[in-house]
Amino acid sequence: MDTESRTEKPVAPMLDAASFEDRVGGDEGLMREVLQLFLDGKDKALANVTEAWSRGDAKALRAAAHYFKGEAILISAHALRDVCLEIERKAAAGELPQAGALLEPLKNLVAQTAQAVQGYLGKR
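Given the sequence above, the corresponding structure tokens read:
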């Protein structure tokens, strides 16, 4: 087996702390505030995505996924950003069944990201 076939695609981190710290200029208070806002809003953002999908509303699903993607970008949660982007793309293309298949991974990533954020805050 050659090296190329054994090389796996790297997994995006739940929270890229270095990138996040750079994004907020190392401001400790701002870091805490932004991360707490994510924790406080994650359930509503997830509900907006799942409810839009349940209604079959591709436009609302695209908008909800886009919003959640922005939240993920803000805190440097790359894996969450990636799945939100994929849902956004599927919704924009009218591919609601394919977008729906990403809802369970989204829920899992939200939980994992929240855990990473809480762990990060606990170390500060």
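The CA atoms of residues 17 and 76 lie 7 Å apart. Try to locate this feature in the token string yourself.
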